[in-house]
Amino acid sequence: MAPHPFPLRLGFLASHDGTNLQAILAEIEAGRLAASPRLVICNNSDAMALRRAAAAGVPTCHLSGRTHPDPEALDEAILEALRDHEVNLVVLAGYMKKLGPRVLAGYPRRVVNIHPALLPKFGGAGLYGLHVHEAVLAAGETLTGATVHRVEPEYDRGPILAQATVPVRPGDTPESLQARVLEQEHRLYPQTLARIAAGEIDLDHPPESPNATARETD
Ligand code: GRF
């Protein structure tokens, strides 16, 4: 059966640097990703991600525990902002907060995330940022990578949509590993969104065993 294209209207949530956001916006700009970036929501009013979005002409919005001290009101405000901008796919791009139940219920099977490890390994509470790469090194892994997955209420769970692998090298530090994994994230995330847009990945029926693409970084 021919794939069904999915016209992507993206709403991003980010917290800090926003390099994944930037990589996705660059692919849209270059015409390689058929998607319309509608909104970038940030919980940190000083985040680089907000400046990157503004520079690309994407509407931005700061919503956090500061603007909405009540978590339920914050959850509702995020949902309202996404709906106001007619977002049909929520893209978590380094968002360090847990999404509320209202947003998850408002966007069933339509929230994706990227994690800097080969899930289901090295995911879950406490495994974020450098902690992930520290854990990979401590476990003596020879291969790590990045995973794009659909978001479920539990951290780093939900069907895997795509993975990219990165070899662990002798002498790697958490920082060196983080840098090489991030480089692959910048390829994997836009590429996976393009496959969703083309109908090759069906978010309602995600692949059972997505191909991990080996990418030597040398
Ligand atoms: C990335 O490593 C991503 O996997 C994780 O948070 C980091 C965000 O980096 N979820 P950036 O803000 O996109 O630069």
Estimate the helix proportion, in percent: 25-40%
Low-confidence segments, given as residue ranges, are: none
| Coarse shape | globular
Q: What is the mean predicted local confidence, pLDDT?
A: 93
What is the strand tally? 8
| Strand order of the biggest β-sheet | 3-2-1-4-5-6-7-8
Radius of gyration: 17 Å
Alpha carbon gap, first and last residue: 38 Å
Main sheet specs:
8 strands, mixed
Class by alpha and beta content: alpha/beta
Strand content is 15-25%
Bound molecules: 5-O-phosphono-beta-D-ribofuranosylamine
Question: What's the order of the H and E elements?
Answer: EHEHEHEHEHEEHE
Count of alpha/pi helices: 6
Describe this entry's structure for a reader.
The chain is α/β, with parallel strands linked by helices. It contains six helices and eight strands. It has helices at residues 19-29, 48-55, 71-84, 101-106, 130-138, 174-197; strands spanning 8-14, 35-42, 60-62, 89-92, 111-115, 143-150, 160-167, 212-214. Strands 3-2-1-4-5-6-7-8 form an eight-stranded mixed sheet, with helices on both faces. β1, α1 (19-29) and β2 (35-42) form a beta-alpha-beta unit. The longest helix is centred in the C-terminal third of the chain and has 24 residues, at 174-197. It is globular and about 50 Å long. The mean pLDDT is 93. The site of 5-O-phosphono-beta-D-ribofuranosylamine has 14 residues, from α1, β5 and α6.
